[in-house]
């Protein structure tokens, strides 16, 4: 399993647009085959850093997923929305593998 972490630098005056973008991915990403953890927008601290996080089985599955996403009507529309509105200043992808498993049971306090 790999985790894709997308770090966004967004326009601090366009948080609503980013929220719309994130909600659209909330529908399209799972439909196209990735396990979406979520999209996270600025709340406290930085007003320009946001993240999208999802899991896939492998880099090969990532490539197939990206092809499905490019063919998805909402996926295409969302790419066009971001390009048109220009609320994303920068976008970086990082692929990680969890190495801390198995995890202990969470303690209740």
UniProtKB/TrEMBL annotation:
<protein>
    <submittedName>
        <fullName>NIPSNAP family protein</fullName>
    </submittedName>
</protein>
<dbReference type="Pfam" id="PF07978">
    <property type="entry name" value="NIPSNAP"/>
</dbReference>
<dbReference type="InterPro" id="IPR011008">
    <property type="entry name" value="Dimeric_a/b-barrel"/>
</dbReference>
<dbReference type="InterPro" id="IPR012577">
    <property type="entry name" value="NIPSNAP"/>
</dbReference>
<feature type="domain" description="NIPSNAP">
    <location>
        <begin position="6"/>
        <end position="100"/>
    </location>
</feature>
């Amino acid at each position: 399993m790999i985790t894709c972490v997308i770090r966004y630098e967004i326009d601090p005056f366009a948080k609503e647009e980013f929220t719309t973008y994130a909600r659209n991915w909330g529908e399209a990403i799972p439909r196209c085959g990735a396990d979406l953890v979520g999209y996270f927008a600025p709340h406290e601290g930085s007003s320009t850093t946001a993240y999208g996080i999802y899991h896939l089985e492998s880099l090969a599955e990532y490539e197939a997923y990206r092809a499905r996403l490019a063919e998805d009507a909402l996926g295409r529309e969302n790419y066009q929305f971001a390009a048109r509105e220009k609320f994303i200043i920068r976008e970086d992808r990082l692929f990680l593998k969890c190495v801390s498993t198995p995890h202990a049971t969470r303690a209740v306090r």
